[in-house]
Amino acid sequence: MDIKDYKGVFVFVEQAENKINGVAYELIGEGKSLAETLKTEVTAVLLGANLAGLEKKLASYGANKVIMIDDPALETYMTEPYAKALTEVVTTYKPEIVLFGATAIGRDLAPRLSARVHTGLTADCTSLAIQEETNNLMMTRPAFGGNIMATILCPEHRPQMATVRPGVMKRITPIEGATCEVEELKVSGLAESKNVEILDIIMKISEKMDIMEANVLVSGGRGMGGPENYNILEDLADALGGTISASRASVDAGWQPKDRQVGQTGKTVRPNLYIACGISGAIQHLAGMEESEIIVAINKDASAPIFDVADFGIVGDVHKVIPLFTEIVKNIKNAKANA
Question: Per-residue pLDDT tens for 249-270?
């Protein structure tokens, strides 16, 4: 089939226990922008069981259409049933572009789909755009350890597929009362395609706020000196109503868990306020936080690269600056409370 017969931007909507992963809203927003350039529509593809009601949320974030496969075999994610269902979607509707979040599920599912429909896949993208001359999708991702940004095209095959890092794209402001067309697709043989048996699901419960959801992040790097010093960052984060995060060096040293890591190999964040404490500002770290609304850097090295992206910089010892910072914040809060 001619590639010109493929139309539309499709977004795989990842959900668990009927709660939509936030990256789906980000991708719908980005997909809407791409679709406008291509003069087409963005379609959300929703797989699972007992999905009624979720289509309204997808419409509010910009989906023009929802394709829903509601089947008991899809209640819990398993590779084969999901790959079979999505392959049916692509072969039936022939989208021009298919986007996934670069999550554990997206990274598992997208390559299997691309192999089954004989097309390419660009992983961990940080930017998407339409090439003006050809209308091909330009998929940009870090390469060679983040030292360069590579833009990849898939001009001869369709659909053009990409996984996109969570937190990179902006979701639109929800549209109250928005509706969209909903089409239910039936796919036979999903239960029979299961090749593993899930005996138990153990949910990890985190006591701390997800750093991708936080409006304020106080982030520590190698300059913190050790895990015992992160308590001063936690005090400041609590005072500001946020949470702590960390650089890769801190995580690799075992000072903070992996889910706190910001950067190219960690999470991409865009809080209202990002306070970098003892972080030099390597390009891999900047890739994960440079879209923050306001960046404050505290480092005793005046030539640290982090100051190049900071809105405000403090040259000083974080162990002395942070407690003073925290005291000022608490005093202001107390003054407002007693006013």
Answer: 999 999 999 989 998 778 888 8
Count other Cβ atoms within 10 Å, centred on residue 118: 8
8 A C-beta contact, residue 143 and residue 149: yes
Q: Whole-model pTM above 0.85?
A: no
pLDDT at site 38: 93
Show the 3-state SS of 237-291: HHHHCCEEEECHHHHHCCCCCHHHEECCCCECCCCCEEEEECCCCCHHHHHHHCC
Phi-psi group of 39: left, alpha or beta (phi > 0 → left; psi -120 to 50 → alpha; rest → beta): left
Which segments of the chain have a pLDDT < 50? none
Q: Distance between CA 264 and CA 262 in Å, rounded?
A: 7
Q: How far apart are CA 45 and CA 75, in angstroms?
A: 15
Q: How far apart are CA 284 and CA 158, in angstroms?
A: 32
Instruction: Answer for the pair 170, 195: CB distance below 8 angstroms, yes or no.
Output: no
CA 151 to chain centre: 19
Q: In DSSP terms, which residues pair with 296 in a beta bridge?
A: 275, 312
pLDDT of the residue at 295: 95
**φ/ψ (deg, to 5) at 230:** -75, -10
Distance between CA 139 and CA 151 in Å, rounded? Answer: 5
